[in-house]
Amino acid sequence: MAKNIYFRQGVYGDRLHDSMRKALPKIDKVFPNRKQAVLVTSTFESSGHRADSFHYQHKAIDVKDTSNNAINELIFKDLKKALGNDYDVVWHKGSHFHCEYDPD
Ligand SMILES: [Zn+2]
Q1: How far is the CA of 35 from the centre of ligand 1 (A)?
Q2: Ligand 1 centroid distance, CA of 13 (Å)
Q3: CA-to-CA distance for 5 and 15, rounded, in angstroms?
């Protein structure tokens, strides 16, 4: 597991699909680059995801955004670049970056 990534209490990374395990070290580089900690706020837990969400396939994680939107914009760009075309990144402003494995 990537060393700078923290999981919110009650959130676990041990069931993540390989695609997300591979994504973690990439996410791990983006945030510290911007001097921000990486806090995973959700993996597969049932709170607030759509029934067909990739979260339940262990192919999505949510990472907390920061209080600074200028930095969030940079992190958002960095995340999309770092993860590449096989992943989708959606920024829910004021909350989190949703990262999922969805190759097409
Ligand atoms: Zn999500």
Answers
A1: 23
A2: 14
A3: 16
